[in-house]
Amino acid sequence: MSGPGIEGGPLPRRNPELLDRYETEIERLVAARDERIRRLAGDDIKLHLHAPGGWVCIDDADEWPCDGAKERLTRQIPVRSERQQYMVKCWRQAVSDLGITDPDEERAMYTRFVAWTEEPRR
Ligand SMILES: [Zn+2]
Question: Whose C-alpha in 40, 90, 92, 94 is 20 to 30 A from the C-alpha of 51?
């Protein structure tokens, strides 16, 4: 018989298709909420979104996610694990958009995009 044995108790694999759908759904919800906020508040509110494909904040020109974006995302996706999931997706997209192939650079991008969503170390 092939595949992982039960000795050692391998963790069940995640279903990548399910995970993708889940991430897409979070992304859709965040976008819908951004749109609602924009409609309600007009141009007065800063959403700290990034320019499409650019990964730079359109409000303050900082590298995305800027502090404002982190604050907004924390409000909009209050469950830490979901926020992390969302940021992992953003990280993957940014690495692809910016054509990053160097593993060190990829790791640096991970720190920039995802590390702030991780559980504080004790
Ligand atoms: Zn910003």
Answer: 40
Task: Find the 24 Cα to ligand 1 centroid distance in Å.
Answer: 23
Q: Closest by alpha carbon to 95, among 58, 103, 52, 82?
A: 103
| pTM (two decimals) | 0.65
The per-residue pLDDT for range 65-109, each reduced to its tens digit, is: 999 999 999 999 999 999 999 999 999 999 999 999 999 999 999
Question: By 3-state DSSP, what share of the chain in percent is helix, strand and coil, each rounded to 5?
Answer: 55, 5, 40
**CA 63–ligand 1 middle distance (angstroms):** 8
**Closest by Cα among 59, 67, 106, 65 to 84:** 65
Find the 47 Cα to ligand 1 centroid distance in Å. Answer: 7
pLDDT level of residue 23 (50, 70, 90 thresholds) = confident
